[in-house]
Amino acid sequence: MAATLVGGAFLSASVQTIMDRLTSPEFRNFINNKKLNLSLLKHLETTLLTLHAVLDDAEKKQINNLPVKQWLDELKDAIYDAEDLLNQISYDCLRSKVENSNTQAENITGQVWNFLSSPFQNLYGEINSQMKSMIERLQLFAQQKDILGLQTVSGRVFLRTPSSSLVDQSFMVGRKSDKEKLTNMLLSDVSTVNDNINVVSIFGMGGVGKTALAQLLYNDKDVQERFDVKAWVCLSEEFDVLRVTRTLLESITSNVQESDNLDFLRVKLKQNLKGKRFLFVLDDMWNDSYNDWHHLVTPFIDGESGSRVIITTQPLSDDDCWSLLSKHAFGSEELCGRKYPSLEAIGRKIAKKCCGLPIAAKTLGGLLRSKVDAKEWSAILNNDIWNFPNDNVLPALLLSYQYLPSHLKTCFAYCSIFPKDYPLDRKQMVLLWMAEGFLEHSQGEKAMEEVGDDYFVELLSRSLIQQSHDDFGRQKFLMHDLVNDLATIVSGKSCCRREHGGNISENVRHFSYNQEEYDIFKKFEIFYDFKCLRSFLPIGLWWRQCYLSKQVVDDVIPTLRRLRVLSLSGYRNIAMLPDSIGSLVQLRYLDLSNTRIESLPDTTCNLHNLQTLILSYCYHLIELPVHIGKLINLRHLDINWTNIKEMPMEILALENLQILTTFVAGKQGEGLSVKELDKFPNLWGKLCIQKLHNVIDVAEAYEANLKSKEHIEELVLLWGEPTEDSQTSKAVLDALQPPINLKKLSIDFYGGTSLPCWLGDFSFSNMVTLFISNCTYCITIPPIGQLPSLKDLTIRGMTLETIGAEFYAMAGGGSSSSFQPFPSLEILEFQNMPNWKEWLPFIGNKFPFPHLKSLMLIQCPKLSGYLPNHLFP
């Protein structure tokens, strides 16, 4: 039964969206002005509230009640159809609002509206009958709920523990001795085999913590120093020797391997391993994978003696499961025993049901975190789901899902469109959830993005999403394979992730697919029948060049009128979009990044619902649409790494803009002045201000009011070409003082003779990264050593001759006895400093750079004499 569960989670989100529409004053006024029957809206609202009250109960009972499952399945389509109808009306309301606010603007050509007007010309004559039929259809479901015995479920209150910090995902119980033993095996010079290959096997069913233990070994400092090359490959259910061999070769050479010739790849791998001690981790190898083992390991035998292959322990003990569960629920086992002693006995019984699986203990701990009543713990212990007769999903995981609030169920289920082992992008997930209408409106002043991030953090705290790090120490987020299976099951037919062909339901709403080098028309021909599709999302590698059939872009995609999410990212053959893109009026999220787009058609401005427009790495893009101001709901405009020449005037109408990655400062009388940045008070994240050489009026730089934009975390100030007016450049940079919360700052091609004094001010206590490049005329450096959190400092292309006291911040040649310059700096780079001759020492009681890990001096030919000797022990 589990494999056919109806994705009830999406129903709650759709009902909430409809309710938001019905209660919107603008929407109701629009309906009233069109002489439509307002009483129908009231009937619809009442019916939806009745159905919404029993959705939780229906989702639980469908597990072993086929009539309830069928009822949910049919209700889902009815709710979706109702939402789509109201969305059409809502768009017409938006269009009317835009037209009224632009009465003096030039109308878009009649051709633009031809394909838009037809759905609405007859809408008003039919809307009453359509709504009446829709209400009758839903009322039938409301009558059937009583026959099915569905009960109203009162809203649950979800309490959080006082601490808001996330559970440390690296915490492992019962593994210390295992790690020590295995580490000794990896570091030992003793070989138990004659072919230079020692295999360390960590056996156990999915979820026992094999991957986590292997990660600890893989990232151990002593282990890293022991091996010349390392590589990690996730195998999952299918063991493809070609893919694994190619992945290993790419990992150790850092070069993409396009060949599909296994023999060729094996020879190259063998050559690259010759005489080297390697460590490979083959994660998640299934039993039937061993059939191809000998094909894989042949190139390994030329490796240096001491090479190791980790293939993947015994389940956790019940005590260890309880320790892990209690840590995720309370922060520690001791805290539970001290503060909630009555819960420990129940908790240990629950832990026993985890069958030694860490993923079960973690998710149950996340579930129990919001509960401190013994009755609630007993209810979980005695839940019928523990007797669930299906191997497709762990009862503990299904239980954790069922106790999620409806808005989290929806967001969790949507994650199923991403493949197993796929790193989830936190910001992208929030934007996708927002586009699909999954985010509840905040009662306070929180922006939708903040609400979405709260959802993400909550899924993290419940271990339904887990935090990890890549080989470079960068943060990433993953779903455990078993959790991904659960998300796939509970999403039902609403989500489809096409990886290896297979049938697709015509009623699928959210679709993703593996992006291939050549995606031909035949692959998407069936989409002509997918009239309900809301998400079209290719999953690929950012560095891979892919090509999509022009017929798909021009003919297929424009027929998907209900699309909310459309990504064409990475298709390098796309240089233009058809005018018919403007017919996708429900679009909220459009990603055209890494394509060859040169400009967007004017019809793009008809997408009044659009919230996110991503154009990053579109190097051929030189302009934005003139009427971009018609995108009145646009919140995120990513034009990073484009060649846009100037900002269009109408961009000032985008009052909701939260992200504007790039602002091009115009000349006087051309484009937008830098002072217009003051019109965007809500900007956050990254901001790059280009062509600052165009700013000749210092007052305009002050009027930009950068200091007040306290949510900007990364700022790039780019002049773009040399200027002889160094005094103006200096005054402009002084005026562009950023907010003190700034974390990253880059200054490039600045023409002043000195950098501003605010740059080294103690108040910039959050600054972590500072990049100063091509400031040719600069002859001094501000007191950067005072920045307490600075970890990464790069200085390139300066012509100064001496770095001395001002660098460390010694006032008047003296220093406080407790002052230590650069207290947090880890990376220091000087490059292309042709005139630099002298680096004076710090005169003080404490050495600077106490945490420095990397010092790079590149192309500094005249530097000689004294260097800070404590940096060269």
TrEMBL record:
Pfam families: LRR_8, LRR_R13L1-DRL21, NB-ARC, Rx_N, WHD_DRP
GO BP, sorted A to Z: defense response; response to other organism
Sequence ranges assigned to domain R13L1/DRL21-like LRR repeat region in this UniProt record: 675-798
Occurrences of domain NB-ARC (ranges): 179-313
Residue span, Disease resistance N-terminal domain: 11-102
MF terms (GO), sorted A to Z: ADP binding; ATP binding
Xref: InterPro entries: Apaf_helical, Leu-rich_rpt, Leu-rich_rpt_typical-subtyp, LRR_dom_sf, LRR_R13L1-DRL21, NB-ARC, P-loop_NTPase, Rx_N
Name by which UniProt lists this protein: LRR and NB-ARC domain disease resistance protein
Disease resistance protein winged helix domain segment(s): 417-487
Organism: Medicago truncatula
Keyword terms, alphabetized: ATP-binding, Leucine-rich repeat, Nucleotide-binding, Plant defense, Repeat
